[in-house]
Amino acid sequence: MITTLKTDITVKDICEGFVYNELEGKGLFGLSGRLTIQPEYQRNYIYADGKKDVAVIESILKGYPLGLIYFNKVSDNALEVLDGQQRITSFGRFVTNKLAIRDENGRPQTFNSIAADKQKKILQTKLLIYECEGTESEIKEWFRTINIAGVPLNNQELLNAVYSGPFVTLAKEEYSNSQNTNIRKWSAYIAGSANRQEFLECALDWVSKSNIGDYMSCHRYDDNINELKTYFNSVIDWVSTVFTDVESEMRGLEWGRLYETYRKQPYSPKEVSQEVQKLYADPYIKNRKGVFEFILGRSTDTKLLEVRVFDEAIKKSVYAIQTAEAKEKGISNCLLCAIGHDANKTKIWNITDMDADHVAAWSKGGATDINNCQMLCKTHNRAKGNR
Ligand SMILES: [Zn+2]
After folding, report:
1. How far is the centre of ligand 1, averaged over its atoms, from the C-alpha of 166 (Å)?
2. 322 C-alpha vs ligand 1 centroid, how far in Å?
3. What are the CB-based long-range contacts (under 8 Å, 24+) for 213-218?
4. 221 Cα to the center of ligand 1, angstroms
5. Nearest CA to 54 among 13, 98, 14?
6. How far, in Å, CA of 343 to CA of 349, rounded?
7. Hey, how many other C-beta atoms are within 10 angstroms of the C-beta on 271?
8. If you measure from the C-alpha of residue 359 to the centroid of ligand 1, how many angstroms do you get, rounded to a whole number?
9. In the sheet where 2-6 sits, what is the strand order?
10. Is the whole model's pTM more than 0.70, yes or no?
């Protein structure tokens, strides 16, 4: 890979022909059309938060260095931004009056409304730019290695870079575009942000059964994303049909896995809804995220719910009562050992050798309070199960 340091390119040069796509939130072109600011393997523009983007402008005005920028030289007349896209898009938006900063008095100021000397200062600011020339794999390997502009690339952003091509471009149009009105609906089930590729990652995770890299490699040059879309929509349709209520704990669950496991089973959405409401009202359930899989599995795997256990104070107090009574009667303080026929019939267990048990099982409506607590030896407690 050949790298050349350029120190004579100014903000003005870059902003010549700057195009910003408001809809997709992307800086597209600059340098009179020679520079592609957002090549398809680049991440989306994430500086548009009124802080990071403004900080770029303020840095320029104060004469602070903007840091190194890297261009990939694609041909004699074509460059792509490899690193620096966020900074370039920020000053590009400012110079083209699409971003305002605030003056000393807190009033918003666009480029057109600031003093001429400040305008000049911005436009004449020279940038430190490395132009790099190499094979596609060299450039991408390097891109994979560097830490981009303070915000490290996440895993999906790296995969998008490594497997860039028509498939990624189409997939990003669908799943990484925060203007896509479906994102709001999907965000009931998927955690994260479209901009950081988390919806795309989720869609790929589902269709590939968690082999995202392999899947992207196989489909890299596809000119459609039909399979990805169809599968994704099937999962979303299935979830929203089975669970008619949208609860916040549904966000980010492994819906792809649940769909594969349970999609062939019939459910009554009405009964499911009643079950969800019942479990949500149960104060003993610590893990509401487990409610959905619990119901899909016909309400048997109580481990998913992390039902609250008896606290130490209750255990100690029940142990003391049971042990005192047992000693008086000359029987075991484990209620089940006491009615048995072996040597443990009269054994007084230590509290550390016993566990608390629900007399009436939680799954049958038994409460987790002192009146429903009994201490059993560990063996009997384990044998009883179904709590
Ligand atoms: Zn026992």
Report:
1. 66
2. 13
3. 213/159, 213/163, 216/159, 216/162, 216/163, 216/167, 216/168, 217/163
4. 65
5. 98
6. 13
7. 10
8. 14
9. 2-6, 128-133, 68-75, 78-83, 35-36, 26-30, 19-21
10. no
Ligand 1 center from residue 50 Cα (angstroms) = 66
Q: How far is the CA of 379 from the centre of ligand 1 (A)?
A: 6
Instruction: Identify the pLDDT of residue 158.
Output: 79
Backbone phi and psi for residue 83, each to the nearest 5 degrees, phi listed first = -145, 125
CB 279 within 8 A of CB 271: no
Handedness of CA 170, 176, 181, 184 (dihedral sign): positive
- Residue ranges, the chain, pLDDT below 70: 40-43, 140, 143-152, 385-387
pLDDT digits (tens, 9 = 90+) for 75-133: 888 998 888 888 999 999 999 999 999 888 888 999 999 999 999 999 999 999 989 88
The token duo for 182 is 């479906």
Cα 84 to ligand 1 centre (Å):
69
Residues 285-306 pLDDT 10s? 989 999 999 999 998 888 899 8
Q: How far, in Å, is the centroid of ligand 1 from the Cα of 73? A: 77
351: left (phi over 0), alpha (psi -120 to 50) or beta: alpha
Distance in angstroms (rounded) separating the CA atoms of residues 387 and 284: 12
Q: Letter for the amino acid at 307?
A: V
C-alpha distances (whole Å) from 235 to each of 36, 196, 206, 260, 270 are: 36, 21, 8, 9, 19
Distance in Å, CA 347 to ligand 1 centroid: 9
- 387 CA from centroid of ligand 1 (Å): 17
CA atoms within 13 A on the CB side of 251: 13
